[in-house]
From TrEMBL:
Start and end residues of each PAS domain: 36-90
Protein name: PAS domain S-box protein
Domain Histidine kinase intervals: 172-364
Domain of life: Archaea
Amino acid sequence: MQEDYYSEVNHSIFNNLPQKERLLKLDEIREEIRNSPSILNTILDQIPSPLYIYDFKGNLIDCNNSFEELLGYKKEDLLGKNWLGLKIMPLIQRSRAKIILGKNVQGLSSGPDEYEFITRKGKLVHVEVKTSVLNTDNYKLILASVNDYERHIARENVLKSKHESTEELIGVIYRQIEKNLQIVSSLMNLQKSYMENNKDAELLQDTHNRVKSIRKAYEKLHHSHKLTSINFSEYVKSIISGLLSTYYPEPGNIALNLELDDVLMEMDTAIPLGMIISELVSNSFRHAFMPQVPGEIKVIFQDIPEKYVLKVSDNGKGFPKGSKFDDIQSLGLQLVKSLVNQMDATMHSNVSSGTNILIEVPRK
């Protein structure tokens, strides 16, 4: 069946015709369309806006289906009658319509002008009407196009209502996710209090930090006016504030230096980037500094054309001599590498003097 269709297309009326003959053939078809009332009526009825045509005396010559639907009349009730005498608009507006008809007779277009149409059931419909003069071989006619803006407003209100309902539903889902993550976080805290093995407690704390970084994103989203994006700088500050209270509940010697561009970021980028910051900063808190030795952790986030740039560094002791960042097999750093790949980002590291990580994330 498909082959038969393409075979017919390949043997169309234009197949192998020279350019000049092809243009002549197109003109012939266009002329046939213009001279075919049935085709023109079909085109007229396919137009969604109400349209009607009248002569210089105000007699209705034709209208499309949308005009019938707007007023509730059939064509036979309207055509051939003077539309100013049909009482399809209030008396005071009929006087104004006569003035506009006078302009049309002079060859002038008009509108859009506001009117009230009266439907067959007596309902007032607020519309805008724009007119244009049509010149045929034998007649001068006027084409009136109607903008039923009440219907447009009603349609917009329906769409707005659906949008608000969708937003409300998504908000409920986000709040439920946030609550569920809070429950998981609380369970981890409870489990940690029963652990006697410090190593196990430390591993659980790492996982707890990851859950908290995700929960904070949904918490920010809950208070955001956007459905899918959050203020990334505020999100990062909340993550680091949580890490600081976990590892340094009392004021210590570690200085935090945050330089964060203010940007609204989509959740599918914000969450993995937030988790990366959580992993790198918590790693610096735990391993970079000797007890009682002053230190600095710096987080820089830049929003530049076509990409985000993240720099996380500390002036701590760095990695063991001779080791490379890519060779480190800890779960946290493996997670960082995985998230970098997930975002199609690039990562560069320097761990010879302190730890310096540079991550570039392409903008979507």
